[in-house]
Amino acid sequence: MKLRNLFFGMGVLAVMAACESTPNGYVVNGEISSATEGTVYLKRVEDKTFSITDSAQIVNGKFMLQGLLPNGAEAYGLTTSRTDNSPLLFFLENGKLNVSIDEESKQIIVEGSESDVFFRNVVEYSKQDGFQIDTLVAHHPDSPVAAYLLMKSYSWGFDTQGLKALRSQMTPALENSFYVEQLNDLISRKEKVDVGQMAPEITLPDPDGNLQSLSSLRGKYVLLDFWASWCPDCRREIPEVVNAYQKLKDKNFTIFSVSLDRAKDPWVKAIEQYELNWTHVSELKYWQSEVVNQYAIRWIPAYFLLDPEGRIISVSLDSDGLVKSLKDTFGEY
Q: What is the topology classification, in CATH, of domain 203-330?
């Protein structure tokens, strides 16, 4: 059966998930097999982080949570650790839900949430060849699950116009959805760093603690490179970046690398290991770095090629796109 037909057959669940918002809110009756006492935390999924919105005492392996979702179903996580960044994920909606969790085996079973059923079905289908998020959005434009998956897992792969096109398909039923609000914000930020825009200023410390500014490189072509030492895709593409630097450094070209590292030592070691002999800066704040928000970064590596005036010439997400941009600008190199 084709994925298109599978999505169509799940339409009833999507509509129920989008519309099932009641004034009575939700009641979650939970059981946890890995703990008989303690505290369970309800954490809202907020893009790349989680925030605690509620908690409940575990008594004889059971707990209860209740509240109201004013804008319909949303993704949440359950965990017994306040600091856990990998809680057991599920789609919460208004109504009565029964939830069973086992943190040791990392399993969660949810009854009473049609949006959770739809979510799990889509996640399974997404593992198959031929899955496309734009097909899901097209067939379920009123589904918070589709909006969530687009924002969380697939938005990095679309340029500004592509995201706008997908957002325009979503119905008014999702107007106040948390995920559509996130999409609107992301599109607004991407528009400010699109081709033709002036690159926003970046001033951050280098490995020696000295502040370095992107604008100090005006007069040169600059490759603004977002990466991190912990990022396998970044490490895999470093040879191409080094190759570009070696061949173009005498052609009024340089690189300004912004790292999303969390600690100084691995960042500095990676710079030394790969002999990355250009300007490096970082806040060492991982995805919470302000420049991540400023440049609408959803995935690394990410490359912005700037002209000598500081205007964005191209935006690339891999070395293939980078090489094409450099060839378009400098010819064969």
A: Glutaredoxin (3.40.30)
N- to C-terminal Cα distance for the chain?
48
**43 bridge partner residues:** 52, 77
Q: Which two tokens stand for residue 35?
A: 């703990």
| Number of other residues whose CB lies within 10 A of the CB of residue 176 | 11
CA angle at 250 for the pair 244 and 252, rounded to the nearest 5°: 90
pTM score, whole prediction: 0.85
Fold designation for 19-116: Immunoglobulin-like (2.60.40)
pLDDT along the chain (333 residues), means of 10: 49 46 80 92 91 96 96 95 93 97 95 96 91 95 96 93 96 93 96 97 98 98 98 96 96 97 98 97 94 95 97 92 92 80
Q: Which two tokens stand for residue 22?
A: 């009641």
CA distances from 273 to 207, 237, 265, 276 (A): 14, 14, 12, 8
Sorted by where each begins, the domain ranges of the chain are: 19-116, 120-192, 203-330
What are the residues whose beta carbons fall under 8 Å from the beta carbon of 6, sequence distance 6 or more? 125
Token pair belonging to 160: 């500004």
